[in-house]
Amino acid sequence: KYCSPSSCGNIHNISYPFRLTDDPLNCGDPWYNLSCESNLTVLHLYSGKYYVQAINYNNFTIRVVDPGIDKNTCSSIPRYSLGPSNFSEFLDPYKLTTLMWCYPRVCLSTTPIVFFKCSNPVNSSMYVDPSTCYTGSSTNGTTLSQPKSRYGYVKASTTKASDFEDGCSIEWTTLATMSYEYQNGSYQRIHEAMAYGFELEWHEVGFSCGGWSFSSNCYPNNIIGFFKSLFEWIGAQRWAVLFVIGMFFTGRCILGVPFLIALMIYKCRRRHLSMYNNIEDFLQSEKNFIPIRYSYSNIKKMTSNFKDKLGEGGYGSVFKGTLRSGHFVAVKMLGKSNSNGQDFISEVATIGRIHHVNVVQLVGYCVEGSKRALVYDFMPNGSLDKYIYSKEGSILLSCKKTYKISIWSSSRDRISTSR
Ligand SMILES: Nc1ncnc2c1ncn2[C@@H]1O[C@H](COP(=O)(O)OP(=O)(O)OP(=O)(O)O)[C@@H](O)[C@H]1O
């Protein structure tokens, strides 16, 4: 219904329900096919081909003319025979109907034009002698092409059985849209009306599918009908559908990848944040016991940018540092920590609380993002294990002293060797 209009010859507005035979299948209604032949728009009616003169979409009428009629040649006669009975009397969406228009002063109707052949001359006002048209005078009903024994007449109105004159038979009929006053006029007027053509009406009103409709097809109102019309629609719009699917997947790729990256970053940050939260919560709850908190820049400063490395333990490297007071410290950088900061928490929670002459003192700590450090008193003689597990011959401690230290030592090995 929404296809752009087609055109052929003088007819430029061929649109729904009409369609040209070459138009796309989804355009127009197949019941209203027109063909374009030698630049003339043709309507096929029964076995005849009629030239379309005009299509009026406001009053739903199409005007056609018989190709045999030439408006300048009075002797031209219709090529095809057609009568009112060929058209529906009802408002039928699939059939054209004859029509009658009545204006305030005049009524126009699609009138049957009946061509008679009679064996005797007829004296009736309804029977018009066509020979008057091209001879200028009556030749008693004979036309130039007719044998003298037969008399030709034309009657422009609906013909009942009682209208038949003796010895007359119908040769052929055609239609012309004309007013009533033309019906009783001369053959010239009747010929003019035939050259104007006849109007037929189509009916869009009352066209209801009652189910799933697609283009001019109607499908039953059930699931199968729905899918049939859906697939037909997809078939007709396949380029648009392919475009939308393509856009969908392209969009997914373009937007999906950054979205995935953003999601991963978010998840990662959440994990780290929860770890930091664990530590911060612990520090808040234990603030009465725990030692000084240093910033990471403090740590860098006190270790002169991690210049002097003392050793490497299970959790990271230990560097020598100096506090502002001049006091030496050992700074343990917790690098290989477990994910939720438990190692840091347990170290601070245990060592931070212990104040014993034999246990190395935790002076402070640093928590800044993923950077964590523990600051201990510096033991100038190094780790106890250096003495306990030293190679044979280099033992500096007597057995008695080693035993004494062992008794005093806690589960941790940070015990002052200076004692
Ligand atoms: N307070 C300190 N004073 C001087 N040196 C230290 C101090 N703490 C650690 N060190 C040095 O750093 C090294 C590593 O210490 P760290 O405590 O990290 O390791 P560890 O005791 O061997 O193992 P773990 O990580 O399981 O405790 C020690 O061997 C020692 O030489």
Q: Could you give a short description of this structure?
A:
Its main location: membrane. The protein has 419 residues and is an alpha+beta fold.
Question: What ligands are attached or bound here?
Answer: adenosine-5'-triphosphate
Note the quaternary state here.
Answer: single chain
> Are there runs of 5+ residues with pLDDT below 50, and where?
136-147, 410-419
Question: What class, by secondary structure content?
Answer: alpha+beta
Give the termini separation: 104 Å
How would you portray this structure in words?
- There is one protein chain.
- This protein is an alpha+beta fold.
- Among the domains are: 46-205, no CATH class; 292-408, Phosphorylase Kinase, domain 1, CATH 3.30.200.20.
- Helix content is 27%, strand content 27%.
- It contains nine helices and 21 strands.
- It has helices at residues 131-135, 180-183, 187-196, 223-236, 238-285, 296-302, 342-351, 385-388, 399-408; strands spanning 6-8, 11-14, 19-20, 33-37, 40-45, 48-56, 61-65, 97-98, 100-102, 107-118, 151-156, 168-179, 198-201, 212-214, 217-219, 292-294, 309-312, 317-322, 328-333, 362-368, 371-377.
- The strands form five sheets. The chain has a seven-stranded mixed sheet, covered by helices on one side. The protein has a six-stranded mixed sheet with strand order 16-20-21-19-18-17.
- The longest helix has 48 residues, at 238-285.
- It is rod-shaped and about 165 Å long.
- The two termini are 104 Å apart.
- The model is unreliable at 136-147 and 410-419 (pLDDT under 50).
- The structure holds adenosine-5'-triphosphate (ATP).
- Adenosine-5'-triphosphate binds next to strand 17, strand 19 and strand 21.
- The site of adenosine-5'-triphosphate has 17 residues, from strand 17, strand 19 and strand 21.
